[in-house]
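Box S1 | Example of a co-folding query
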Amino acid sequence: MAFGPREFYETLPSTQDRAVKLAREGAREGTRVVARRQTHGRGRLDRSWSSPVGGLYCSTVLRRPREHLGLLPLAVGAYLGAALHEAYSVPIALKWPNDLVVAQADRLPRKLSGILTDEVSSPTLGRAVVVGVGVNVRLPVDSLPASLAERTAALEEFVRTPPNLEDVEGIVATASLGAVERLEVPEGVREARALCRRLLFGVGRRVTVDGQPAGTLAALGDEGELWVGTDTNRVAIWAGDVAVEDSP
Ligand code: BTN
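Box S1 (continued) | Returned holo structure for biotin
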């Protein structure tokens, strides 16, 4: 596993934008950009990603896997989730396609981490993928508006001493690089799929896609697509905003 050079900033508009620029300029695999806060953090679907001090914001340049690109964000999430569970005993689940949520009985699922991928041309890697990960490490969840607070979790809730941001960064970088390595060998692909399926959130629950009722979440497909059962058949969802309804 090739950890590359690291750029560190106290404040940056977006680690993702910086890492995309570096990738386009030929940054080597494993290069990562880290910031303590972001002023224009980017999320999926053109959303913003609130990035106050206390979170981990890290973007890593990876070579594009030759196959199974659709599995990459899920595999990063699954390996990251498994490692966070092991290190901090967080009850974690993978919410398609790119969220890690804390799933506890009798509580709403709460977002702990989000993952964003951008594919770019690189003069050294050919095609590169920049994987950006935000993790709520130390976040005063109670200071958020109530509607957001009940949907947000932070790692510090699960440990006695506040988690160290460098430790979490190491876990994120290892999960990102490790996911690409696994997707390049058949045994690794099988392992990644199995882990994603084990952690998948919401199986058997009703889902909406882009705000429209779509059916019941049935399974994760081999390439990372989501299979949803309707009254009459099963359909594959490849992109979009999937929400799992709260009541079973
Ligand atoms: C999402 O849940 O929509 C994805 C959020 C991804 C946020 C991370 S934080 C580090 C990197 N820099 C960004 O601007 N975005 C990603």
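The two ends are 41 Å apart (CA to CA). The helical segments are 15-24, 72-88, 146-149, 165-182, 186-199.
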